[in-house]
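Human: If only I could read backbone structure tokens as easily as an amino acid sequence. Take your time, and here it is.
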Amino acid sequence: MATDPINLTTALASFDEVYSPRIVARMNDYDVRVAHTLGEHVWHVHEDTDEFFLVLDGRFDVALREADGTERTVVLHRGDTFVVPKGTEHKPSSPGGSILMFEPGGTSTTGDRHEGEVPGHVDSTTGHALT
């Protein structure tokens, strides 16, 4: 990983795909990823890790499925942060924006398990190198 500063605006301008995160830095065993968001993601869960989101631009919603099966949606705007606790089923969606995430390296964007088919605009990946 580069030891030079990374400008997040420049990093985001280097690709157009949505829900296809780029790794902009690594810290200990964690990836720092940025992604464009638009449309619905897929219901999924990360059994062993929390997932941190920071909204860089636009709006980013996270639907959560509680242990009793009820659902609620957290609406995030530019500058907002939110952590999805490990083991919590969640489904991101967005009318458009960009996010920064902290996740352990190797964490799949579609979780340890997901519900249904992965939409064609969602990249099931552990992150891509920033080019």
Notes: The helical segments are 8-13.
